[in-house]
Each structure stands twice: as C-alpha cells, then as structure tokens.
Amino acid sequence: MSDAAARLNIGSHDLPVSAELSRFMSEGWAASPLPDSARVAAHAVTPARRARLSARFPGERLIIPAGELSVRSNDCDYRFRPHSAYAWLTGLTGEDQAGHVLVLEPAGPHGHEAVLYLRPRSPRADGGEEFYRDRRYGEFWVGRRPDLAEAERLTGIRCAHLDRIGLLDAAAGRDASRDTELAAALAELRLVKDAWEVAQLQLAVDHTTAGFEDVVRALPRALAHPRGERWIEGVFGLRARAEGNGTGYETIAASGAHACVLHWIRNDGPLDRNELLLLDAGVETDTLYTADITRTLPLSGRFSPVQRQVYELVLAAQEAGMAALRPGASFRDFHRAGMRVIAEGLAEWGVLKDAEGDLHRRYTLCSSGHMLGLDVHDCAKARAETYLDGVLEEGQVLTVEPGLYLQPDDLTLPAELRGIGVRIEDDLVITAEGARLMSGALPRTVAGIEEWMGNLLEG
Hints:
By secondary structure, the chain is an alpha+beta fold.
C-alpha cells in the first residue's frame, strides 16, 4: 500500500467512501488553471543565485530540501515554513512546499541543471481521492498546489513529481563533511544582499514600524489586562499576519524584570505603568525576509530618572556601535565599540571598579548584533572567517542591539537599578560610505520616544 493510500485508510475522523461517492467526486469539475503570468516574486534573481552555488561545487549533485511537516499535536502540524536556502534558490516560500526538494544535477564540466521535485496538484479524475480525502496534503483540506507545468512557469525551474526523486539510496552513503560544506556555502552566498533583498528587508522594517505604533496605541487596554504582555504580543501579531507571513520569530514582550530575560517569550505577565516594556519583534514578509527591532518603552509614557539613566547609557553604546559600521571594518568592531561605552558607564556608576576586562558581561551577556535576512539570525552556518571573524561588505544587513540586563536579585547593583532591562535594536545596511539606518522611522532618543508615544496615545 502506498503512503498516500495508507493515509487515506487510517484517518481517525475519516468516513467510509462508497464507490458511488468516489465516482461522483471524480466528475463535474471545471478547469481552474493559474494565470499564465504568475511568477514567484524572486523569479528574476534566483537563476544567478543558483549559478553562484553551482560554481562552488562543479560536478557534484547538490540536494536542497524544503523540509518536512512537523506534528504539533496528534494530527495537527505546525505551520510550515520552507528552509531558507531552499526559498533563496527557488523563490518558493509557501506552506505548500513541505517535502519538496531542489536538486542541482551536474550538467557538463562546469554547470548544473536545476530540477525541482514536488508534489503537484492531485488529479480529480480517474479515481483520484487525495484532493478530498488526504487531510495533510489534499486540496480541499489545505489548499491548491500548482501542477508541474504551472510550477515550472512560477519558478523557471524544470519540475518533476516527488515520487520520481529516487535519491534516498544514492544519498545514503554521502559524506557528511560535504553536507556541512554545502550548508556553509549556502550561508556565505547569502551574506551580501542584492538590491531586491534589501528592498524586501526594508518592507519588513516598515511593516514592523507600523506594528510598534499599533502596540503603543493599544497600551491602555493592555495595561488593564492581567496578561498585558500577551495582549501586546497579539496586537503585534495581528499586524504581522495582516501585512506579511507572520512574525519572523517569537515576539518578546517583556515588562519590568522580565526584560532581564534575554529571550522572554512566555509573555504572560501584567503591565505596570511604573515600569518599562521591552518589545523585540519583527514582521516577516511573504517572501520570508524579516525585520528585527527592539524598543524599550516607559509604560507611563515618560521615563523615570533611573530608567532614563540606564536607557541613555544603552543608547550611547548603540550610537558608538553604529559609528563603527563601514565596509572593511571587522564584524566584531561594532560590538567592541558598544561594550567599551557600557563598561565605562558601569564604572562611572560605581558598579564596576574600572572599565577594563570583561566583568561588564555580567550585566550584558550577549553579542551586540547579527546578520539579518531570511533568518532573523541570518547566515549562521557560515564559517567564522567569513562572518564572525570576517569584515563587513557593502550590501550586508545587520542589527546593532546593545543592552543592559540588571537582574532583580543582583546584589552587586544598587537597589534602584535592579530589575531594569533595556535593549535598543535597529536594522542597518552597509553602504559604500558606512551604513544606512533602515529602522530610523522609530524614534530612539528619550525625548523622541516620549513625544512619539504621547502623539500616538492622544490620537
């Protein structure tokens, strides 16, 4: 019995289908082709991407899977997002890509032919039942898929049925080190963004800016709710789903001491007007490029003196980090510049004896930024010498996000500082002259934030 037939026979909620119903379901359907003009958004730029990858591995078969569905509970799957390398090479970004595989077959001494193995639209005639009985892939259950000819027009790639891939045996004895090399190459090829990618990232930033404005307008209702953090998460999530594919990562809506937890995503706490809200969130476009922005906002609309003290030190660190961005600079330079400001500030406060060494890391654990693109922490499988220990290049997009996380139980701190967490994060693209701030529409200064919040709350 085939996998498809097995699925049809074991559905826990499936009803028997009589021969008469089966015949009836196979008849009377009008043709409904996709428009001949339909193309994936990245159609014009993916051939060059595949050619660059081909040049790195002459004569080798390259296999880039979209990934598989993952069960969330019983017969419900998590929402599917194709692997970023697959999306980058094909332009296909939808939930219908589960199980599909791009193969670059060696063609001649120096090139490859791309073949996309996919699950095409299931037939409705000749006894086909998948379209209405298969709960995981059936068209009536999860939506329409393109047929092979439509998929070829969409992507510009030769397409074949997934059943014909026949690669399992051929791949069984493959060299794992070559898989690692392929993953690194795919990450490194994505380090520098082309103009189309930068435009997609700017779109993600613009939608995220709108989401932050939504959150400020929603603060009165969020403050009144016993789980105000979750209200904030929901408000931003609405904007992300309305404008794009969703959020690029789990939203961090951390109020009060929760802001001292670097990746706080429980978001189950109340909001207190006397405290700060750290909101780290990003909209992911339909093409899967994500923004990554953090603002730390006074829930009263005005910073207290001690909140201002902490915030302005983090802002000074971010300014120093941004000033270090330019082509040819070490990737780590902006982090070092920001941390020097943090260490000196902590020494001035008397928290540290001096600014030397790395003791400041007790209060700011992580790095101050990362590459940004299809993944929020983009190109992470790149070799250290090309990324973390490499130099910046024009066209790279990255975040600058220093922070201070003053734990509520840290006895090395004055009592008034404990429980305050501040992070300021912006997205920038490296230019020939330095860097362009993509997220500048959101204010960063104390005065700018207070005025911005006041205007939104009054409106």
